[in-house]
Amino acid sequence: MKIGIVCYPTFGGSGIVATELGIALADHGHEVHFITYNQPVRLDFFSHHLHYHEVLMEEYPLFQYQPYELALSSKMVEIVEKYQLEVLHVHYAIPHAYAAYMAKQMLKEKGINIKVVTTLHGTDITLVGSYPNYKTAVEFSINNSDVVTAVSKSLKQDTLRLFDITKEIEVVYNFIDVDKYEETKQGKCQREALATPKERIVTHISNFRPVKRIQDVIQIFYRIQKEVPAKLLMVGDGPDRLMAENLVAQLGITDKVLFLGNSHEIKKILCYSDLFLLPSETESFGLAALEAMAAGTAIISTNTGGLPEVNLQCETGFLSDLGDIEDMAENTIIILNDDEILETYKKNAIEHSKKFTLDSVLPKYKKIYGIEFDK
Ligand code: GMT
User: Fold this and answer.
1) pLDDT > 90 in the chain, percent
2) How far is the CA of 287 from the centre of ligand 1 (A)?
3) What CATH code would you report for 178-355?
4) Which helix (H) or strand (E) holds 344?
5) What predicted TM-score, i.e. pTM, was given to this entire model?
6) CA torsion angle for 133, 162, 138, 291 (degrees, to 10)?
């Protein structure tokens, strides 16, 4: 089948899911066309099954804001026609579902019927999507997609609560390619480059936006390092990075916290890690936590959104109320202070991550697209 995938090409979870899905479909012989404003970060190669089309914008002095939806929908029409695509799968409703609806209407005029699949990822619903200034258009474009999916049960419930939805929403969980984590585990993990043998390694990975509560990550770690020898790896970049660096300096723990920036070596970093911190305000799923679990890392998170569907209380880690940094610090110390507990949680994390495999999710998307048999 010929499939168009529209996503944010950055380090955010929705772009990662979209890219990994596209790569897997191409591996199964389908022709996949990414339509985005930059090459997706995890798309590091092309093949005759895998293509990338850049959405180009025009500068004009009259525009205070450039009309991205216009350029995107025009590009979708062009690529659907040129390559005879059969499905457009858009990840993150804003503005992709809206642009896809416009593209579908334009194509209809040309006698082409394209199926539009919209996958809701999180903040497109729980934060930005429900802003009064966007809500009408987001609701309209969800209701006018041919198929709508959400990445967790919790996100489906949030969508039904926040919008007037007339469309069925199917839950298709985020996924990981378990084999890729096995390969990393077998490779040499140069942990000693970052910490002494006695130190535990605690990791946080995100795009450092306010919703991730980076200040809580630092405050939790501040309490941990008083009780357990440990290092904190802060991976990613975003608006709250400077605030976090200042807080680390204020608390006098600069020698114990490493800011690594955005990284293409996530699996390697996770293979050094003992525990992953995710104290988010809201998290529709928590792909970063799932990736950490697959790499054998215990999880300390809040109990918001879809996180309880991923992190299991007293099994793969602990979940606390939003902002309860004392509880999250205490739970972390319990895990890190005891080799046996840590090993048990790590093993459980690996086992539970296997419930979210590419192999279980791919057939669901194929069915949604209408793929009956692979070539
Ligand atoms: O907020 C982010 O971290 C990025 C965002 C995105 O859409 O790029 O992530 C959302 O989608 C991910 C993939 O489905 C989910 O795993 C994240 O939980 C979700 N983020 C939030 O809900 C805050």
Assistant:
1) 86
2) 7
3) 3.40.50.2000
4) helix 339-353
5) 0.94
6) 110
